[in-house]
Structures are given as structure tokens and as C-alpha cells.
Amino acid sequence: MLMGIEKPETYETPGLAQEINRQLVAVQKRLGELNPRWEHEAMKLASLE
């Protein structure tokens, strides 16, 4: 996605840059949701060792 937003030809297609940006925002939001869960599960796993 980041590579797509950096390409000049991305801006030649109407709406493409905005769509890539929406996708990027959605991925960032999802990472923000999943990262704490990942850390929690990793701590549980570490305590088993």
C-alpha cells in the first residue's frame, strides 16, 4: 500500500490515492486493535515456559 501511494501514476487514476489511504487507515486501526491482544497472548505463553 505504501509503495502504491508513493507512485506518481497512482495520482493519475481518480480516487485511487484516496482508496489506498482508506485501506491504510483501516490496516492501522486493525493493528492498533490486534497488537494489545498479541502482547497479552505472548505474555501468557511466556508464563508457561
Question: Can you describe this structure?
Answer:
The structure is a single chain. The model has no long low-confidence stretch (mean pLDDT 91). The termini are far apart. This protein has one domain (2-48). The protein is mostly helical and 49 residues long. It contains two helices and no strands. The protein has helices spanning 2-6, 16-48. Helix content is 78%, strand content 0%. 0% of the residues are buried.
A few lines on this structure:
With about 50 residues, this protein is mainly α. It has two helices and no strands.
Any key phrases for this structure?
mainly alpha; 0% strand; 2 helices; single chain; 49 residues
What class do helices, strands and sheet pairing give?
mainly alpha
The count of domains is: 1
What is the end-to-end distance?
Answer: 38 Å
Percent of residues in beta strands: under 5%
Q: Runs with pLDDT <50, length 5+?
A: none
Major sheet size, sense and barrel closure: none
Helix content: over 70%
DSSP, total strands? 0
Rg, rounded, reads: 17 Å
Order of helices and strands: HH
The geometry reads as: rod-shaped
Mean pLDDT: 91
Please, how many helices?
A: 2
